[in-house]
Amino acid sequence: MSNYGYIDENTIRSQIQLICKCLGNGKNDIAHLLLYETAKAETGLGQIEDKTIGAGIGICQFDKFPFNDLKKRSLKYKDKILKDLGVDITLVEWEHLRYNSFLSLLFCRLQYKPFSEEIPKDKVSRAGYWKRYYNTVAGKGTIEHYLKMNQ
Question: Is 3 domain-assigned?
Fold first, then answer.
């Protein structure tokens, strides 16, 4: 039993498609793969038990400080997200991501959105992209972990 709410793979894939339709699928048309692989790397798509209280939450393991900063930086997408997805991001709180895969994936996409570097086509390069822009140098995740979780 996971601590992320009910999650099944088809629902996650559908949610990712809706989010990428709204916010774009990247120049290489593969942001959907990056989001899916990020959720796999972070929580095994919700199958790895979350034993933390104050650290990253939700299937994409968002930390509180980056969430608040990202929410402020993403206000330019507020109207589009509200129109296309029915979510007012100004009302979303960090704690909402814990049991809501859609919101966790939405903020995951927003995290990757501002980077001009194209999302790589191959998985090994996407692992490096994830480490650079999502897990960051401060995170404990490794490229090897990303690849293992996404075999």
Answer: no
Distance between CA atoms of residues 141 and 37, nearest Å: 13
Phi-psi region of 4 (alpha: psi -120 to 50; beta: other; left: phi over 0): alpha
Q: What is the pLDDT of residues 66-120, one digit of tens each?
A: 899 999 999 999 999 999 999 999 999 999 999 999 999 999 999 999 998 999 9
**Burial of 54 from C-beta contacts in 10 A (0-12 / 13-18 / 19+):** exposed
**What domain range is 49 assigned to?**
9-149
